[in-house]
Amino acid sequence: MFDFSTITNWIDELLQSCMAPWAVVLVEGLIIGVLLLLLYALIALALIYAERKICAFFQCRYGPNRVGPLGLMQPIADMFKMLIKEIISIKDSDKFLYGLAPFLVILSSMLTFGCMPFGKGLLTLDFNIGVFFIMAVSSIGVLGILLAGWSSNNKFTLIGAMRSGAQMISYELSIGLSILSVVVYAGTMQTSQLIAAQEGTWFLFSGHIPMVIAFLIYIIAGTAETNRGPFDLPEAESELTAGYHTEYSGMHFGFYYLAEYLNMFIVSGIASLLFLGGWMPLHIPGWEAFNTVMDYIPSVIWFFMKTAVIMFIIMWFKWTFPRLRIDQLIKFEWKYLLPIGLFNLLLVTLMTVFGWHF
Amino acid sequence: MSNLSLLVVVFLTGVSLVAAALALAKLLAPRTFNPQKGEPYECGIPTRGGSWMQFRVGYYLFAILFLMFDVETVFLFPWAIKVRDMGPEALISVSFFFGVLILGLAYAWKKGALEWK
After folding, report:
1. What is the pLDDT of residues A82-125, one digit of tens each?
2. Domain regions of chain B by residue span
């Protein structure tokens, strides 16, 4: 399996040999920043196209097919349209918070994006508190949404933001509990070690039922966290126009659009990191020939394939389940998911401590 | 590069993405003035009253409950990575903490705090 750290180390050595140490840090920072930005934009564009096409196929229509071959240029045209639209400033809005909110939303998605294990050796932020850091920064996004709804001085946005806040903080608990179960089982929080622990088998296929339950809880709560699918109450078009970003126009709105798609990618990426082994190929203990063949598929392809499968499932949710009411939404989380999550954590602990097999 | 400098790099990338896109939009987008445009969006009629007003207390209740369980998650993370090393002792020591939490949830449930009225 190709290790991308050979390339990064080679670049590092090359720069070290011809520059001062501070300049090396500067240049490397610049390279990493530009690469992250490009990947961020590219994934967002690809996802916008994929979402529209998949929606179309679910509803038996063609989807975008006019701009470019197969409509491939459609997301680029959309982005350009957003750029050349006017940014309206609202009367009596809180200008500072109104401007700050998109920064927070993008920042939280960018910081979690930096933690994604794109491939072997392709990991920007690898802290020893890994998944805990991901949880911490991803909850900044709620703050951005609440500020957006509050500052734009509009009743639709206020209701949208409050709903969104209630929903996101509620479902964050379930995400936290299912991440905790994995951490208990693996005994580490570091991203690279979590992946290394799944070299034998992925956690989902480790033969433990609590892992499967944790995965299901994670997928449900993750869908709610991205305000998608059956949980899209905060931006329920028919009642709240556009929810918390009603008053945002042009590129300001574009940031929420970007962050929404990227959050879906991030939720799927974390699911594949925690339960499907990140970039780790599919290994079946004892099947040596099979494992060797799987190792030939590059790690980047493994990561993006797993993430794409989970993203497809999340998109599928949207067209299968009707939208929940707010009381159903709250009841579902606090009366079903949370107790199940707590019980599941207990099972995983018993499994780890006594070696019981569930 | 150290982890801290990487964190700063990713942070600055996020900030510069927003700043650069906004600057680009400022350059490309038209800017016209019209008092009607600044009005808050409403269904075709002028908005009555301000929007910064009292809203239902239910949200506040869930925020308090969330706080309780979120702090719990923060406390459980250091325990979680030590479970394997500590063995049965880990389970016993955390069961008290867990018990109090579950009692709290049960109390909130019984009091009807989890209902959306």
Report:
1. 888 887 777 777 778 888 888 898 999 989 988 888 888 788 88
2. 1-31, 55-117
Beta-carbon separation of B83 and A352 below 8 A: yes
Listed residue (A248, A265, A267, A264) closest to A256, CA to CA: A248
Tell whether A113 is covered by a domain.
Answer: yes
Domain assignment of residue A38, yes or no: no
Q: Could you tell me which residues come within 8 angstroms of residue A219 by beta carbon, excluding any fewer than 6 positions away?
A: A271, A310, A313, A314
**CB-CB contact of A72 with A42 (8 Å):** no
From chain A, pick out residues whose CB is under 8 angstroms from the CB of B17.
37, 40, 106, 110
* Each residue's pLDDT tens digit, A22-63: 888 888 888 888 988 898 889 988 998 988 888 888 888 888
What span, in angstroms and rounded, lies between the C-alpha atoms of A230 and A220?
A: 10
Q: Structural domain tally of chain A?
A: 1
Nearest CA distance, B95 vs chain A (angstrom)? 9
Q: Are A161 and B55 in contact (CB under 8 A)?
A: no
Instruction: State the DSSP code for A122.
Output: B
Q: What are phi and psi of A122, to 5 degrees?
A: -105, 65
